[in-house]
Design a protein that fits this description.
39% of the residues lie in helices and 14% in strands. By secondary structure, it is an alpha/beta fold. The chain has four domains: 400 residues, Peroxisomal Thiolase, Chain A, domain 1; 146 residues, Alpha-Beta Plaits (2-Layer Sandwich); 250 residues, Malonyl-Coenzyme A Acyl Carrier Protein, domain 2 (3-Layer(aba) Sandwich), CATH 3.40.366; 92 residues, ACP-like (Non-ribosomal Peptide Synthetase Peptidyl Carrier Protein, Chain A), CATH 1.10.1200. The protein has an eleven-stranded mixed beta sheet with strand order 5-4-6-7-1-8-15-14-9-10-12, with helices on both faces. Helix 7 crosses helix 13, helix 20 packs across helix 24 and helix 27 runs antiparallel to helix 28. The longest helix has 21 residues. It is elongated and about 115 Å long.
Amino acid sequence: MEPIAIVGIDCRFPGAPDTRAFWDLLMRSGDGVGEVPRLRWDAKEFHSPAGAPGRTNTTEGGFVSDPDAFDNEFFTISPREAAAMDPQQRLLLQCAWRAVEDAGLAPQRLAGSSTGVFVGIMGNEWAQLHLTDYDNVTAQIGSGNGYCMTANRISYHLDLKGPSLAVDTACSSSLVAVHLAANALLSEECDVALAGGVNVALTPALSIFYTQAGLSAPDGRCKPFSSEADGIGRGEGVGVVVLRRLKDALADGQRVYAVIRGTAVNQDGRSNGITAPNRWAQQDVLAAAYRRAGIEPSEVTFTEGHGTGTALGDMMEIRALGHHHAARTGKPLALGSVKGNLGHTEGAAGIAGLIKVALSLHNRVVPASRFAAKENPGLKLREHGIRLLKAPLRLPADGVVAGLSSFGMGGTNAHAVLESAPPAAARPKARPQEQPSAAPAGIGAALFTLTAPAVPALRRNLLAQAQAAERRRVPVGALAWNSNQVKTGHRYRFAVGASEPAELVARLRAAADDPDLLARLAAAPTGRARTAFLYTGQGSQYPAMTAGLYRDSALYRSFLDEADAALLPHTGRSVRDLVLGGDEDVHLTRWTQPALFAVEYALGRTLAELGVRPDVLLGHSVGEYAAAVLAEALPLDAAARLIAARGALMQELPAGGGMLAVRAARETLEERVAGEPLVGVAAVNGPLATVLSGDLAVLERIEEELATQGVRTRRLQVSHAFHSPLMEPMLERFAALAGEAGGGVPRIPVYSTVRGRLLDAEAGEAMDAAYWTEHISAPVLFADASLALLDDGASHVVEIGPRPVLSGMLRTLGGARTASGPAHVHPVPAEEAGGRELADALAELYRGGVDPRWDAVYEERDRVPLPLAPYAFSDQHRYWAAHTPALGGAPAPRAEPALRPVASAREPASERPEPQATAVAVLEVARGRAEGPVARAAYEVVGAVGGYQPEELTPELRLYEDLGFDSVMVMELKNRLEKQLTGLGELTVQDLLPRLSTVGDLVGFLHEIGAAAPGQEERTA
């Protein structure tokens, strides 16, 4: 068969809350078995050492910790529905999410795809406890139980459209699920498949069965193939793997843990008992798997056995293996079983073994098998060409073949053949860029990103990622690039720049402990960004401007070099070398203007290449040249020719001109200079921020007159009187050059500082020769253009220039116009700024809704798959059933609001939310609370239907997206509203649906139709 790659893994087993802990447990031959937790049943009450009828012979087993914890808010599941759900569904939801992340995929990106879900499961005790309590069966109880829902829940919440099914073949269920998933991939029913298994023991029923059948180990431990083997010990667990066709995984540059070469499933038919193992069927399924994998038995280095530790089971398995491997006397087959560490995890047994084999191949070592030291002599392992793994087995780098068996109690057997990942996957190469570009990638720093559905969740995951990064020796670029690929898609975004791992850890921790930052994020969840680029004019230059960025960023270097090459034929000297060399000539007009153009062109193109596409542009004076190139109104060569000529021609003008900033209105100054032919208004930067330009002698006289009137002025340090009548002598020569260069209508909207408004592209208003000629002496109408831009509703203003100049002016203008203006972003906030500062600017834009082109941020060496710490789900909410009378406990469980989750006292103090984070959460739910009897009644009804406390609800909460409502809950909402409120008449679902966007919308609708609280009409009368 075509090979199938295992590209993602997540699991949770006794003594091992995650994949990393699971591998650690295996490598140290750890024991995950312990006493039956009181959360399950009172083991002592059902215990009888002799195994009396109705009793078990053990009080021990392998149990996962905190199976009642569930982050229902993450999956937008109401508390009432969460309380009704089988915990196996809850565990699988979280495990599947983390497995997809481990595959290097953002789970939201699978939405709408043909991804399949295949789940092995054999226990359904939650349903037995709930569905027999007839008085309390609800719609949520119905959908919260049933084998099908274990798979369907995953497909529903991840919006997957491929096959979705649960498999029950008893103990072989989850390996059969893997077999079905692999076949679905091979038949192209799906391109990605999630395969897994789950088992949670809620009652002692199977323990009693194992005891009465003589299969239960008194100490609750499986001892596979050991002389001490005395039966089965029960275990719990959940595991999910992400599968892809190997060729697809390699093409996408995914990390591959191991490769499935072949699988087979069969049945032993009418044998020596429906629950008894059958040697012949087992050896047949082994042969079929070897044949399908295209290998000989002698090629198999080790096999993960079914290994239950029962006398008959172990004997049948050894004989079946021996049929194929007895000739291997010189190099026997290595054999082990994870059940020695965990117990028999029943429906999850196959996936537990698969994950062990995949991790062994990935890490090039097979852990020693627990209890292997005292092998059972009756099995005659040597004669069958088999040896137990009494010590870890080191593996070569590639070409290792392994086997995996899982046999069902009812006779359905499964076997899989795996192989180590090919070298290209074992040492992943960089993924191909998202969109190939001629520009080299890399900004000289990393940008770590993280998203979460709520601010407290964001804080929790910031700390989890900081802790994980602190203990790893991994380049910060690789960590960040993987975060960009995987940790995305939620409502609240966070990003931070870093140049090395220690800095990243420090900044993640600082963000998690910054209540002001968290409060700002809570107040403004990410929306759609509308970005404006503001290009700075003359006066912002300085020697060695952007030298740090040129040093750090290959991307910026390429664009500054490109601008320099375009300018060189017209300047005769490298503008780049002048700028980076710290030459004071940068202050000479002939060099200032082309130097600013080169820097601003490079900055604008760098951001555009990074995926920051401006919605609108504005340039102050010479800043319009670089803006025009980005807007595609001028080609680079033409703009370079014009700006070089502009600077040179202005430099040739005679001295004697100057500029004067005046704190006065434009209209006032226009009247004053109306009779002055050598002075004019050069710029209007605000209502009381006007610049005059012209003859120095005249300006001095005007300055003195204004001083006597108490008007503040400031002389600007310039070489010439820009934007004044003194520019007249150069216009004719410049106009001739501009006519040759041409110019067109901008493709990106431009707010012109020549016109003081948006250029009318539909009318064909072009930035042509006439425009650029007028541009020289016309006043810079920055205030008018900026106010028009602010009215356009930009969310982010990015200042493109060597230092921030225009942002302060824009804030002053916007202060009187809007209560909260756009966010201001500066790629080069200071003279020494480099790649880290550019990363911080990109971080600010990402937090505001911009989606960068991540591959352009990093050099090729950083774009490699790398596992990150998985999503840290909240364990504060707990959902569990009270014990039924049959178990000697309280009355049967109810999935009612009374089972609301509460913060767990068992949560480690180090993981509890800090006070400031809790305060943020409270702020999130305390804004704008509606009052009045109708509102209070509506809140009570919504709370009752969803299982929320009324005080948790706020007007802006969305019923579907935030509170997890569905059609069944809407019907219940309607019925409860009719009973709770008077004056409604007969309320139809059709009436409600258009008004169920938010809780506030529902309250408003009820007021509109004249609803009254119970008894209100009587009180009014």
